[in-house]
Records
---
Amino acid sequence: MKIVVIGAGKVGEELCVCLTSEGHDVVLIEKDTERLEQLVGMADITGVIGNGAIYDTQMEAGVDACDLFIAVSPSDEINIIAAITAKKIGAPYTIARVRDPAYSMQMGFVRESLGISLMINPELEAARDIARIIQFPSALDIEQFDNGRVNIVEVRITEKSSLPGIRLRDLRQHNLDVLVCIIQRGDQIIIPDGSAEIQVGDHVHITGSFEQLNRFYVAAKSYTHRLDSTLIVGGGRITHYLLERLLRQKMRLKVIEVNPGKAEALASEFPDVEVTSGDGTDQAFLREERMTNYDALVALTGIDEENLLLSLFAKREGVKKTITKVNRTDLLKVLDLFDLDSIVTPRKLIADIILRYVRALQNSQGSNVDALYRLVDNKVEALQFHIAHGSRATGKSLKELRLVDNTLLAFIVRDGKLLFPKGNDCMMEKDRVVVVTTHRNFRDIDDILA
């Protein structure tokens, strides 16, 4: 597909790298010549210098002949105008990033009336992700499928756990009926079979019923009781969206914001939240604010390094759960050196949404990609497919199907019922299935067949 992207910020960079790696022809429009040259050198893309909302610039970039137009510049207004212009020029599908809470309140109206195919908000998606992690505190990370009815969760195996040395086929003998989808062992990624053995230090991604997941948390010594209070450091847009969600959970909330004006505005908008103006990265100040009286700490300052150090300090002081916002993905390798809890990367969340949308556009028959998540530093994909008429994957038992290597069928949803498949089960038309794989570019359920 030919895809035109406006904006060379963090999200634009992530999109250019991901889309070109999947074989798409990407044209990037950016005002900053130096930044444009940097990304052209980094990814196999074409660059056009200029304002992406201007007709002439879009024509130079070939918007009239593109398959998809994506506007992710820093300005909401430019993104909306650019998407409308692109639609008028001839782009069949348009995506606009819109971050302002005021616009987010009327996304549906704007999308329908102006013809924008998809409107996305990184901060809103990050807030949703954080709220989900707080709701499931025993997991490091959680990806939800089928509208939240089933989850794939990440758990760290420590030396305190009773699980090291157990083979996956023997988990049921320990009253643990879960499916281990991925084992991350240092730099090694394993899509396991029953002979794989759990080791200390592994990060395992598992799925199963809510009850069985809780049993696994207990065995892994990662079980955390329900979180009743949260301290948030940083009062930006993510915090705005997050407070709306956490207040519904009846949590005790406190926000520390260094900017007095922002703190005052936040306190006015959320009277049920305690808001304090101060330096949330100052350890003495955090002690004064009784950080350890809160079950969870969410580090949402605008500086990744500050968030990292803040979460490390909170863990050392005994806070049960830390959630750290990190935009620079190169820092994630550094984070692996520490026993931090959950990491949230807004640019990755948005890139996943757009990649899912792109694959759905590419797929004209067979099955559709309903959901896509990239796990383990983008090395593994979990995809939800809808089985359509004519799929070659139907009609045979799973033990008869030959799957490509490093691919696992995690679960099937059939007629509203959840099925963790065994060898004699088979996929059927209208099923929704989730596949975990190290392969890229799966667009159809038939792609998993060898």
---
Amino acid sequence: MRPDYREYRPPVGLDSLVACLWENEPSEDLIQRIVPDGCVDLIWFADRELLIEGPDTGPRLVPLPGLVRVSGIRLRPGAAAAVLGIPMSELRDHAAPVPVSLVWGEQGRRLEEALANAAPDLRLGLLAEAVGKRGAEPDTLVRATAQMLIERDIRVESIAAELGLSERHLQRRLVTSVGYGPKMLARVARLRRLLALSDRSLAARALDAGYSSQAHMNLEVRQLTGTTPVRFLKDAVFTAA
């Protein structure tokens, strides 16, 4: 884990919605590569605005100012639509992060004002409190789907059969709750499994993660991260999701 990036466990009662709270305070200006992880983040950015980041189906390069603390709360797959109150497909692959005030209206503007006036150490607590007050319940079928895909290489039709759903219904649920369908989420899950593996050759890691071949891995990693597997695995940080 990078010394400038820190993760914290979600507060009691928010585990079903929140993967983690996090802070990033780089020592100098940098360009951060963000890759799809199935999650959506609420981010207090550069001491001036509260943004929604994701869901994305490809990489995003984000400039981070040095010596400025960025605070965020990461919503689990299946939780963001319930917390934010809109289908995640409406936010997919936006050219820039979306201001929370455009989604939450006056509540979002009040939260931005509170964050702007709060000491940096209090901002994560304010973000968690705001999420808790939404009274949201995650889509449990989507959570189960995401967990299956993260834990093992499994076909979408097998997931639908295990959950007692049609593939079309599962597709609709995921597009609403995550922002994209199960096949895209499966690609994201393979990437996370690849990143979690270590101490193996690249070819062995590819097969263990669920890719059909090293060429398949090369293609998907480039599409999802915008760089080569070697470079991605060298620089990437495994984060909560």
